[in-house]
Specification:
With about 240 residues, this protein is an alpha/beta fold. It is built from seven helices and seven strands. Strands 3-2-1-4-5-6-7 form a seven-stranded parallel sheet, with helices on both faces. Bound molecules: NADP nicotinamide-adenine-dinucleotide phosphate (NAP).
Length: about 240
């Protein structure tokens, strides 16, 4: 898929991993619809970085834990021209377990990490011009194959996102491809020190952690390569091998 002049919508793109994806897609030639929730200031900074690459940016705020969020976001994105690439990166990472998860906590996590990607993909497929090809990339986590004892609702939601990736790839072929990147240690969770990842790195076969630029590169290659659908690319330094 030729990305030059196409429009990409990236959720949770104000900073951290989502920012790396948005900047990589912009560097590959996409205009960007940059979604954010609470990080309006960081979203402005990332938008400036994308403009400096010569691409157009539309900022779109939405709360994706609210069922009204995905349709409102997609409607706002529509003003930027037909969206040909959708990257579902926004997520929450609550510290819950099976023992203490609450109905409201589970609902919020499923709404943000699963329902928002589902309904954004639905809106994306509905709005894509009939003669155009499109690509969706979901950002998931290699640990769905080997769940954490904590982060229970997160892991359950990302596991369902893995299944959604395959189901949507089947449902939307041949015009729309749907793939995923399953991340390992890229950045410490918000509020945790960088030493958090240094400890983790010792257990990773490649003995180091990733960075948002590597995730951006992987997303760009999945979007560009139009013979790949229903695939999940692990960026985890080989963590899944252990
Ligand atoms: N960091 C890692 O090493 C790692 C590892 C495995 C998987 N991942 C996955 O990679 C993706 C990005 O990771 P990250 O560490 O950069 O994530 P993050 O900083 O924890 O959050 C990503 C974005 O999600 C948005 N978000 C949270 N709640 C939202 C809501 N209710 N409505 C709309 N947006 C909301 C936030 O937007 P605002 O800041 O604007 O509120 C935030 O920028 C996530 O899907 C994560 O699960 C990351």
């Amino acid at each position: 898929m030729d990305l030059s002049g196409t429009t990409a919508l990236i959720t949770g793109a104000a900073h951290r991993v989502g920012r790396g994806i948005a900047v990589a897609l912009a560097a590959a030639g996409c205009d960007v619809v940059l979604h954010y929730h609470s990080s309006a200031g960081a979203a402005e900074e990332t938008a400036d970085e994308i403009r400096a690459l010569g691409r157009r940016v539309t900022l779109a705020g939405a709360d994706l834990s609210d069922p009204a969020g995905p349709p409102a976001l997609f409607e706002a994105a529509g003003g930027a021209g037909p969206v040909r690439v959708l990257v579902n990166s926004a997520a929450v990472f609550p510290e819950d377990t099976l023992a203490d998860v609450t109905p409201d906590g589970l609902r919020r996590t499923l709404e943000t990490n699963l329902a928002a990607p589902v309904f954004l993909t639905q809106a994306f497929a509905g709005a894509l011009p009939k003669d155009a090809a499109g690509a969706v990339v979901n950002v998931t986590d290699w640990r769905t194959a080997r769940p954490y004892p904590d982060h229970f609702s997160y892991t359950v939601a990302k596991g369902a996102l893995d299944t959604f990736t395959v189901a949507a790839a089947e449902a939307l072929a041949p015009r729309i491809r749907v793939n995923a990147v399953a991340l390992g240690a890229i950045l410490p969770p918000p509020g945790k020190p960088s030493s958090y990842l240094k400890t983790l790195a010792k257990e990773i076969p490649l003995r180091r952690v990733g960075d948002p630029g590597l995730v951006g590169d992987a997303v760009v290659s999945l979007v560009r390569n139009d013979f790949i659908t229903g695939e999940t690319l692990r960026l985890d330094g080989g963590a899944h091998l252990r």
